[in-house]
Write a structure and sequence with these properties.
Blueprint (H helix, E strand, L loop, with lengths): L1 E8 L25 H23 L4 E9 L7 H14 L1 E12 L6 H9 L4 E7 L3 H7 L6 H13 L3 E8 L6 H12 L5 E6 L7 H7 L8 H17 L3 E4 L2 E3 L6 H7 L4 E4 L4 E4 L2 E5 L3 H9 L5 E6 L2 H12 L6 E2 L5 H12 L5 H5 L2 E2 L3 H5 L1 H9 L1
Parallel strand pairs: 1-2, 1-9, 2-3, 3-4, 4-5, 5-6
Antiparallel strand pairs: 6-8, 7-8, 10-11, 11-12, 13-14
Helix pairs in contact: 1-2, 2-3, 3-5, 6-8, 12-15
């Protein structure tokens, strides 16, 4: 079995205003001890869940990717993340070209710590840039210094990382097209091989959502957000980054193997509080709070909160939703007559590529990418 591991690190020094991820600050958890102790104790639990996962799978596993996400996994001690990599290498089989990614907050590392992450086996870093403009970062409630992005990416390059990605967010209230162009140009000046650019989604219950509701921050301008996507795609393409998923662009050979495993509906196991997994048509997810997670693990139990067996309709719906986001698109022979009829209208309108359609594939054009969700909703009805 081919499997990807996602290792969730549910800790941040501060919660960003737009974030609704399952992450906790030391103050929220009423933890007074240092991050060193948190790192060591939490990783002990992760190693135990890996043992429990091996017992559940009970078949040979080839691991294609390991992704340390969060939260802020770069706050952890490099040696502790090294223990996780060694455990997976011992209990499973790592493929020759295994991708091991670490999400990095640019304020949480220096060159020495990046070298230590590289030395324990991490071979790809994904750096949370978000924006190069201070007032945009302030609206997002991001605390990092934008000047640190250049330092960190260059350090990562110098210590030996061949795969360096940056994450950008566009559409923040108050962000002009000129601001966004500054962020695009700043990202493209870095020694990187991959870019993710996500439209800001204002999630209910976040600090940013409350600020918008109170009128302290403007609403998101959807038309302006669409223009920014077009700006980004043109600039990234001209710089040699090719789109391969709606929000992701990469140089040749640098597509994210881990994210592709999600989009292609492959198997993955999420380790840690709130992490989700998919294994041979079964989806399950862990308890969310670190205290409950610890309690389950110490009882020698998988920390699964709930699960479901995907039926054929769910599997097909997810295949369509994910495939349409990729450059490979959807094979038309896998569609029914109504879906083909519905999609043919988008070929005529220029939202699906005409030549690809004639060759049996439904693939989004640039304008089609702007309305991908609408197209998917139509063929799922």
């Amino acid at each position: 079995m081919k499997l990807a591991f996602y290792i969730h690190i549910p800790y941040c020094s501060k919660r960003c205003g737009y974030c609704d991820f399952n992450t906790y600050t030391p103050s929220e958890l009423k933890i007074s001890s240092g991050l060193n102790e948190i790192s060591n104790n939490y990783i002990d639990l992760v190693l135990k869940e890996l043992e429990l996962a091996k017992s559940k799978i009970q078949e040979p596993v080839h691991v294609s990717s390991i992704f340390f996400g969060g939260g802020t996994p770069s706050l952890m001690e490099p040696e502790d993340l090294g223990r996780v990599i060694r455990k997976i290498r011992t209990d499973f089989v790592l493929t020759d070209e295994v991708e091991i990614t670490l999400e990095v907050n640019p304020d949480s590392v220096d060159k020495q710590k990046l070298q230590q992450f590289f030395d324990v086996g991490i071979n790809r870093v994904s750096i949370g840039m978000q924006s190069a403009v201070s007032h945009v970062l302030k609206t997002l409630d991001r605390t990092h210094n934008p000047e640190n992005i250049s330092k960190v990416t260059n350090w990562a390059n110098e210590v030996g990382f061949k795969e360096i990605s940056v994450d950008l967010i566009y559409g923040t209230p108050g962000e002009s097209k000129e601001d966004w162009q500054v962020s695009i140009d700043s990202a493209l000046s870095l020694p990187i091989s991959h870019i993710s650019a996500y439209a800001l989604i204002v999630e209910p219950g976040t600090k940013l959502a409350a600020q918008i509701k109170r009128g302290e921050v403007d609403q998101v301008d959807d038309d302006l957000t669409a223009e920014k996507y077009l700006m980004a795609d043109q600039a990234f393409t001209n710089a040699g980054f090719n789109w391969y998923e709606l929000s992701n662009w990469a140089k040749d050979g640098s597509r994210s193997k881990h994210n592709l495993s999600y989009w292609l509906g492959e198997n993955w196991w999420g380790i840690g509080p709130g992490a989700h997994s998919h294994l041979n048509g079964e989806r399950f997810w862990n308890v969310k709070h670190p205290s409950m997670y610890k309690e389950k693990i110490e009882l020698n139990q998988l920390p699964i909160a709930d699960s479901e067996i995907l039926d054929s309709k769910q599997i097909e719906s997810e295949r369509l939703m994910l495939s349409i986001r990729l450059t490979s698109g959807i094979e038309t022979k896998s569609l029914n007559e109504k879906q083909i009829t519905d999609l043919s209208g988008y070929v005529e309108s220029g939202h699906l590529n005409h030549s690809d359609w004639q060759q049996g594939r439904a693939i989004l054009t640039l304008n089609g990418r702007l309305i991908a969700d609408r197209i998917v909703r139509e063929i799922l009805l």
